[in-house]
Amino acid sequence: MVAGALAAMAAGASAQTNLAIYGIVDAGIVWDKNVTSADKTWRLESGQHSGSRLGFRGTEDLGGGLTASFTLENGFNVDTGTLGQGGRIFGRQAWVGLNGGFGSVKLGRQQTPVYNALLAVDPFAINLAGNAQRLFGGGLYFSDPFLRTDNTISYATPNIAGFTGTLGYGFGEVAGDRSLQRQLVAGASYVNGPVNVQLAYHDANTATLPAASPFLGTGIADLKTAFLGGTFDFGIAKAHLAFAKTDVDQAGGTLNQHSWLVGASAKAGSGTVLASFIRNDVRDIAAGQSDQVALGYIQPLSKRTNIYTSLSYTDNDPAVRVNAFANGERGRLFNVGVRHQF
Q1: 226-248 pLDDT, tens per residue?
Q2: What is the CATH number of domain 55-293?
Q3: Are the C-beta atoms of residues 339 and 305 closer than 8 Å to each other?
Q4: CA atoms of 29 and 306, how far apart (whole Å)
Q5: Any residues with CB less than 8 A from the CB of 253 and at least 6 apart, and which?
Q6: What is the pTM of this model?
């Protein structure tokens, strides 16, 4: 009798609670060539199609239409076995939240609306050699704060006829000045049938620029970016379009950048061919532009495993730079690898 009662309780708990372990293991061979200096490099790198990760997500039905949820997602480098995202244990995502008819509220380290919008629009899905992160915002889309925000509370609306919206605030946590290092994020999307439209905004106050940031070098800056993009699926092929305006304010002045993407993806047998052209136009302090053309291919081997390859060509004007290529340099980047999802 007691055993039966315990079994019933366990069955009820399992019906209300869900826990999943998931991940991606991705590694590829990378070749890059600086056309200007003729330098070449071969290497093995993690996450050339999608960042390698191990994640835990769960939900609990609290009754009355209210659900608790969480995600803890670790990023790692499969080529060396080390942690990604600067050695954080859960550097990709770490948040807890509540969901209901009102929408959802999350607290913790989260992906930004800009990251999610670019991921939905870029035919190279952010990581392949032709990805838009390498040029958009002069390469600033390739790093925090535009990828993920710490100490963030966000609200997402429910899906209303294909429309969803997101608002978020990242606490700066600086004593004596609540505006220092604070972040404001917002996003909106419309997904219905063949149409996918993405709008995102990010304002990072007194952010620390990454070491690889172009133009003004490292240091502190106020960063603002607005992104608009979309795709249209014609069935046999999909069109990809995007535009972003990014401002970098430093003591040395303001750098204004406009970024464009025109791309396509199309079925080729059981695989998919990818192509794009991207331009980042730099204004004000260092006028000039960087262009990138890219071609790629993804071949599924099963529902969870695929192989991939991509090739990009980047051309920097003398006054500007993106990626690892310096001002005025031209370079090629190639990768080929395998990705497994579980």
Answers
A1: 999 999 999 999 999 999 999 88
A2: 2.40.160.10
A3: yes
A4: 15
A5: 284, 285
A6: 0.88
